[in-house]
TrEMBL record:
It is found in: Membrane. It holds the Pfam family Tim44. This is Predicted lipid-binding transport protein, Tim44 family. One of its GO terms (biological process) is protein import into mitochondrial matrix. SUPFAM superfamilies: NTF2-like (SSF54427). NCBIfam families: Tim44_TimA_adap. One of its GO terms (cellular component) is membrane. It comes from Hyphomicrobium facile.
């Protein structure tokens, strides 16, 4: 039995070794078709390396899809930004079409302009200015106001302080913020917003008595403010800050 088992084992090993050698020869053999495929691949690689730079995609070009599966045309980054800005502006709800026109004029010079972002920022500025005025915080006001408006606000604060009056105020929130005007003139963008806010405000005299307002009552306040920003050149546009340049009472 042992001799027979050894003989069978040896025969099986010989067959296995022969099969492995044959399989290796087959796998390691390159046919004419393989040679042709390799040569075609090398040719394509050489042609790709010799193409002019104009045929390669540029980092500042965006490919936009077109209808009917026409060949895709490259669109420059500034042009794509302008298209996106126009879409945002036309989607922004306004009661006066002239506002949309003003927004579009601004976006032609500054494609980053976004009405939603502007109104959100104007709302934050409104709260900061109203609160700083009540506190008499001239430093905070200086960075948010034009020189003319700053001079008017600080003069009012000085008069209040001379009388010994103080304002106790709590800013509750903005109920509504509507853009009523927008224009671009001589490279300066101007946007006017009507704010309807809720405040708790009371003015105290130097004896501490309330002489205006009510410290226990929420009052609706309407302000119409105009913000401006110079966008006439690239250097000016690098400054993203809008300043309050005018205030007016509602009609």
């Amino acid at each position: 039995m042992n001799g027979q088992f050894d003989l069978i084992t040896i025969i099986a090993l010989v067959i296995a070794v022969a099969a492995i050698i044959k399989l290796r020869n087959v796998l390691g053999h390159r046919t004419d078709d393989d040679e042709k495929r390799v040569e075609r691949l090398k040719t394509r690689e050489r042609e790709a390396g010799q193409r002019p730079a104009t045929e390669t995609a540029s980092a500042d070009v965006i490919t936009m899809p077109r209808r009917d599966r026409e060949p895709l045309a490259p669109v420059s980054a500034p042009e794509a930004a302008a298209t996106n800005a126009e879409a945002r502006i036309r989607a922004y709800p306004v009661s006066d079409p002239a506002v949309t026109t003003g927004f579009l004029d601004i976006a032609k010079v500054d494609p980053t302009f976004d009405p939603d972002a502007f109104v959100a920022g104007a709302g934050r500025a409104y709260e900061m200015i109203v609160s700083a005025f009540a506190e008499g915080n001239r430093k905070a006001l200086k960075d948010l106001l034009s020189k003319e408006v700053y001079d008017g606000f600080t003069a009012a604060i000085a008069e209040r302080e001379a009388r010994g009056e103080t304002i106790e105020q709590q800013f509750v929130g903005i109920r509504k913020a509507d853009v009523v005007e927008a224009e671009l003139k001589n490279g300066v963008a101007s946007v006017t917003v009507r704010f309807v806010s809720e405040l708790i405000s009371a003015t105290h005299d130097k004896a501490g008595e309330v002489i205006a307002g009510d410290a226990q009552k929420i009052t609706d306040v309407t302000d119409i403010w105009t913000f401006s920003r110079d966008i006439s050149n690239a250097k000016a546009r690098s400054n993203l800050n809008w300043r309050l340049v005018a205030t007016q009472a509602p009609n």
